[in-house]
Give the backbone structure.
Amino acid sequence: MVTLTATANNKVYNAGVAAVGQLRLSGLFAGDTLAVTSDAPIFADANVGSAKTVTFSGLALSGNGNTLSNYTLGSIGSTVTTTANITPAPLVLSNLAATTKVYDGTTAAVLNLGTGTLSGVLGSDVVKFNSTGLTAVYNNKNVGTGKSLSVTAAPSVLFGADAGNYSLVGLGNFTGAITPKAVSVLASATSKTYNGAVQTQDAAVSSGLFAGDAITISNAQATGFNAGTYASSIAVAGVDVGNYAFTISNANLLINPKPVSVLATATSKTYNGSVQTQDPALITGLIPGDSVTVNNAQATGVTFGTYASNISVAGANIGNYVFMIKNANLVIKPSITIADSEQLLKVSGFDQHADYITFKMPVLEFVPIFLGVSNVELEDKTLKVLE
């Protein structure tokens, strides 16, 4: 009786049970030659597994008739088994795309469940892939189309009745797109009043930028010194500017003229033979050091009468103010005294070239007519013209 040893080769899953194996005889006497034949070896089933049974059936010895008659398979019979492995067949996943996303400052990607192709599935085998078992990231965070993805597959990515017979060994070219994020940069319309210093527009408002991105917003705040309108001129720059779609709204800094009042002082004086001046005007609101000159704010006069101020302003900085001007009068009244015991009346101030005009008492009858006033009285030898 001879000894028969069977071996089988490991194979990659191919949806069939066919095996490749070898049979080797031992125990022959020196010089004897025999062979053993069998049907094609087969695995117990086609599925992936380790140490799977491989069966050689229809065993028979063959050789020289004299020699063949000296040997038998004995208890081996017509069947022998061995074991071998069936390893998973490789699959390649390709044409997978990511859902287009709006820029979010990261490389994270979400795969589109409706895309992707598995290559290598055999015959009628049922194998699918689960996109939730795939993790994808972009090669960088920046906006673009046709961007490459790096995809990692979890062991559970494949499913289906025959999924256990396959392994995902290849990931093809995956792409996706990142679109710009909408960002608004709004300058603040600002109104201020001239104050003699440089003034700045209120801060602009921006929304939607991600912290850490290299974005510089310039000229978002206009500045000005003099009264007038100053426009912002917003500009954006930086490495990450292409990742945003900017909506820019400029606005103005309005510096309004400062209100200033120039009020002449109504002044009443009595003739004294000299030039007399209206009391000083009241000026409020000017910034110290500004080049503004107020002219003709004080009227002057010598003789009896009414003299009006005629205020005007000039200077390099008058455009920074809005002037509220109110003129007023200097009134010079005549000087009326009783000259002597004859009760002659001296009225001075009607003509700067005459010392006085005399009237014979009683004066209360005609002085009001001469002076053009409605009421006079005599007090301590002085005629008073009442207001």
